[in-house]
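Bumping my old thread because nobody answered last time. Still need a sequence for this structure:
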């Protein structure tokens, strides 16, 4: 979808080795970006950061190669003939807008990051939750086995407990757990001021507002005294507003939100159909957090499945 060719990460030959190099460099580059963001004006304390710069250069080189390949494969004079009826990639679409290489690279990485890293972390955290709540997996499996035919998007959406499980997992463990917005002009927020935070609060122009999703997602005033517990059934009658924003909301909401729900549901159904049960094989019950631009499990997700 992005570049027009696969990274071949599932192959068993040298192609997989190269793909793993890209993934490793990408992960290490993200770790470096997080450190730089945390240090702010004190980045000089990190030293020369040669390893991080090498990883960034490796990722940029891969994307630059894809840009070169796309440009060479197209007749530049016929770009305007690309239509919705003719297959084209995200990179092809970008080439209709600009030939500026920094623009192309930044836009591609801006999509590659959530499509690869955030999605992988997100689905792994869902299985992290299921491994510690095997009854939920068993109920999903029961619903899946009742369904005949292919797992279409409509079928997946109709599985209410499956959808509730995904939402509840997102509520407890949001991989992209914060967002920062800057006030473009003086304004007043309706809540946030006063001793109880329920009064208006003035926000001056250029002030940065840091939103922590997990605090809202686990706030007992919104979710009850069991806010820290995994309870998919709470979604039977809970209609969230701004207290639940794993994809943010408003004009800057994630455009891939529905695609993520559908992909996650399909992957979970695939495992539920193939395996009878799931168990946690990690010595840790609680999540040991690691931040690499998004929050993930430092120990990975260690689970066991039972074959029928």
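Sorry it took so long. Here it is:
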């Amino acid at each position: 979808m992005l570049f027009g060719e696969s990274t071949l990460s599932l192959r068993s030959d040298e192609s997989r080795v190269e793909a793993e190099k890209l993934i490793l460099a990408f992960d290490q580059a993200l770790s470096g970006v997080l450190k730089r963001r945390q240090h702010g004006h004190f980045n000089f304390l990190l030293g020369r950061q040669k390893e991080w710069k090498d990883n960034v250069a490796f990722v940029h080189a891969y994307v630059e190669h894809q840009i070169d390949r796309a440009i060479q494969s197209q007749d530049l004079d016929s770009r305007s003939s690309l239509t919705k009826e003719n297959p084209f990639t995200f990179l092809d679409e970008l080439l209709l807008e600009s030939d500026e290489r920094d623009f192309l690279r930044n836009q591609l990485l801006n999509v590659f990051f959530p499509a690869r890293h955030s999605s992988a972390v997100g689905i792994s955290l869902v299985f992290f939750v299921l491994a510690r709540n095997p009854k939920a997996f068993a109920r999903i499996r029961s619903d899946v086995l009742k369904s005949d035919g292919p797992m279409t998007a409509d079928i997946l959406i109709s599985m209410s407990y499956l959808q509730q499980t995904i939402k509840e997992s997102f509520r407890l463990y949001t991989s992209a757990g914060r967002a920062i917005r800057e006030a473009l002009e003086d304004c007043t927020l309706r809540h946030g001021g006063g001793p109880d935070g329920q009064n208006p609060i003035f926000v001056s122009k250029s002030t940065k507002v840091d939103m922590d999703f997990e605090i809202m997602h686990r706030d007992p005033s919104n979710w009850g005294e069991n806010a820290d517990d995994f309870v998919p059934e709470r979604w039977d009658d809970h209609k969230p507003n701004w207290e639940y924003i794993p994809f943010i909301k408003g004009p800057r909401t994630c455009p891939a939100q529905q695609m993520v729900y559908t992909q996650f549901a399909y992957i979970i159904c695939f495992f539920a159909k193939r395996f009878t049960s799931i168990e946690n094989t990690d010595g840790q019950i609680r999540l040991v957090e690691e931040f690499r631009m998004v929050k993930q499990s430092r120990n990975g997700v260690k689970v066991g499945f039972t074959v029928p």
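The radius of gyration is 22 Å. Let me know if any region looks off to you.
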